Structure formats: structure tokens, C-alpha cells
Amino acid sequence: MTPDATTLVVVADGHRARLLEQPRIGGPLHDRPEWLAGLKEHHDHDGPSHITHAGDLRDRAEKAFLRDLAKRLDDINARHGFDQVILVAPPRALGHLRRSLSITVARKIVGSDAHERVDATIITLQSVVQAARLASAA
């Protein structure tokens, strides 16, 4: 493991995301909201409110948002050349996101955390990133 590897940390759920940069392993995390500028949330409230149908709409909205996020990650990686990627998302969103990633970005994944942490503090996310690295090294 190269200590000066740059890492993109992706924290998402099915509707929101945060992107953080870690310039070196074990270094500080920096929120990069500007990298998400223009990324739109997809809404699930267009249509009938029958339970099954509403669930399908929510699922489609979540998948569309995560596909758009995956495209954005590909663009960001092309511009900034990250060495590693860590994904943090609830299990279902994590699965959708993984399936939507380009091969280039997917190959850089060094760890993940299957929890909802979009609103977590930087200190919490620092611990999550460290734990994800340790879990993948084991």
C-alpha cells in the first residue's frame, strides 16, 4: 500500500451523496461538494401511491440517482486520477452503485461500509474509512 495514494470516498444513499478526498492514506478527509454540483435527486412521487407501485417508483428513482452518481464518479476520476475508492452506502444502495460503476472506477475500490452515513461527521467518516481499509486488508 502506497501511503501517498489519493482516495475518493463516496458516501451515498439512494437520494443524496457526499464526496470526500483523502490526499494520503490516514490523512484528513476533505468534503468536495463542488464535485456534485448539478447532480440532481430523482423523485419517486410522480404517479399513483399504491404501495407496490410506490416501492417500484422509489427503487427506480434510487437506481437512476446512483447511475448518475456513478457517471459523475467516472468524470471526477478522469479529472483527478484517484488511486483508490472507498464506498459508503446502505446495502441496497451500495449494490446499485457497484453495478453502475465503470470498470475503471470499480477496480480502484479498496473497501466499503454498508451503512447509511450521508449525515455523518468528518470524524465519524475518518473512522469508517480506516475501518474499511482494515477490513479489506484482513
Supply the key terms.
about 140 residues, alpha/beta, Protein required for attachment to host cell, Host_attachment_protein
User: Number of folding domains?
Assistant: 1
Could you name the ranges where pLDDT drops below 50 across 5 or more consecutive residues? none
Mean pLDDT: 90
Main CATH class: Alpha Beta
Distance between the termini: 13 Å
- Estimate percent helicity: 40-55%
**Number of E strands:** 5
Q: Summarize the helix and strand pattern as letters.
A: EEEHEHHEH
* SS-based class: alpha/beta
Query: What overall form do the CA principal axes indicate?
Result: globular
CATH superfamily: eRF1 domain 2
Here the CATH topology equals Nucleotidyltransferase, domain 5
- Taking all Cα atoms into account, the compactness measure Rg is 15 Å
Tell me about the largest β-sheet. Answer: 5 strands, mixed
Our count of helices gives 4
Side by side, the strands of the main sheet go 3-2-1-4-5
Protein name: Protein required for attachment to host cell
Pfam families: Host_attach (PF10116)
